C-alpha cells in the first residue's frame, strides 16, 4: 500500500472486547462510515476468504457491495479488501495492540484497484483520514460499551 493512510486511537477496552466488535459482521455498519446496512454475513467471518455483504449510501440511493477478509489473526489483526463500486477497492489493515489503558487500534487504508487508485495520494488521504477517525470513534463506543 503505497500511499497508506494511518489513523490510531486508544480504546478503553481490552483487545478481546475490540475484537468481539470486529468479529461480529452484523455490527459493520455501526462503525464503518458509509456502510448503511448488512445484507448477509458469511458464517466463517472473520476467517480469511469470508465476506460481508453490505450496502453503502443513503436510502434510497444504495449500492450493494462486499468486504472480504484477506488476512486475520484473531484478537490482533484484520486485513480487509473493501469493494466500493464504482470507485474500486481498498485494502484496510486493522491492528490491535494491548496498552495499559486498553487497546491501541491502528487502521491503515489505501486504494488498490479502480478509479480511486488514479486519484493522487494526498487527495485520497484527505477523505480517508476523517472517515477513519470517525470509524475508530464508533468502534470505541461499541467496544467500551461492551466492556462496561
UniProtKB/TrEMBL annotation:
Organism: Nocardioides pocheonensis
InterPro entries registered for this protein in UniProt: Polyketide_cyclase/dehydratase, START-like_dom_sf
The protein's name in its UniProt record: SRPBCC family protein
Signal peptide segment: none
